[in-house]
Amino acid sequence: GENVEQHPSTLSVQEGDSAVIKCTYSDSASNYFPWYKQELGKGPQLIIDIRSNVGEKKDQRIAVTLNKTAKHFSLHITETQPEDSAVYFCAAIKAAGNKLTFGGGTRVLVKP
Amino acid sequence: DAGITQSPRHKVTETGTPVTLRCHQTENHRYMYWYRQDPGHGLRLIHYSYGVKDTDKGEVSDGYSVSRSKTEDFLLTLESATSSQTSVYFCAISAGLAGGNEQFFGPGTRLTVL
User: Fold this and answer.
1) Residue B103: its chain A contacts at CB < 8 A?
2) Which end of chain B is least crowded, N or C, by CB within 10 Å?
């Protein structure tokens, strides 16, 4: 089955700096890669996703890149703000199924 | 939360008692999922449904059963709760390939088994 690894497990950045979270996946058939943000006491919220036919996608201060050859994808948050503090999860899924496999999560702390 | 509600939101129960958690959606999505979230383990799939009366096991299905008699409702049952089932449970929905495989999560149910 699919295996998704996520690094780092914790990330502390100064407000205004950039944050980068990296994930690797094992199944080359995976073709959809969402990112979720989870705030304390809430459910995960989809913030951005990328499909295997695209190398990069951007939405305001967040961007995701995908390297299919190396089987890794990354989340980039620029100009971080205190409200970006949360746990972020990456995930992967194959077209033939609908079962997401999640990475272990990254706790991001943005220090003012 | 994308038209997803979970009930109850919090529950404390004793070992050996049956527990049923409910997920309700208003999006008419085909797929529904139950995950549990534990420190150090991230989100793990328990069971999922790909249509009314169509369900399948996830990676941590032992001790759990599910039922889906209507499109909008997906029930998770712990027949005899154990302390290892203390966790936060999340329901998710998806329109599947037709909707781009996006999954949306509910607010969660915190279950404590004493």
Assistant:
1) 34, 46, 100
2) C
> Band of the pLDDT at A96, cuts 50, 70, 90?
low
Can you read off the two tokens belonging to residue A66?
């995908």
Q: Helix (H, G, I), strand (E, B), or coil: what is residue B47?
A: strand
Q: Which residues of A touch B41 (CB under 8 A)?
A: 104
Contact B97 A105 (CB under 8 A): no
The tokens for A64 are 């995701």
- Closest to B19 measured CA to CA, from B86, B93, B91, B105: B86
Nearest to B58 among A44, A89, A99 (CB): A99
- A52 pLDDT higher than 90: no
- B101–A36: do the CB atoms touch at under 8 Å? no
Per-residue pLDDT in tens (0 to 9) along chain B, 114 residues:
569 999 999 999 999 999 999 999 999 999 999 999 998 778 999 999 999 999 999 989 999 999 999 999 999 999 999 999 999 999 999 987 766 778 999 999 999 999
- Give A17's DSSP letter: S
**Is A43 in contact with B97 (Cβ distance < 8 A)?**
no
Q: What is the mean pLDDT of residues A4-20?
A: 97
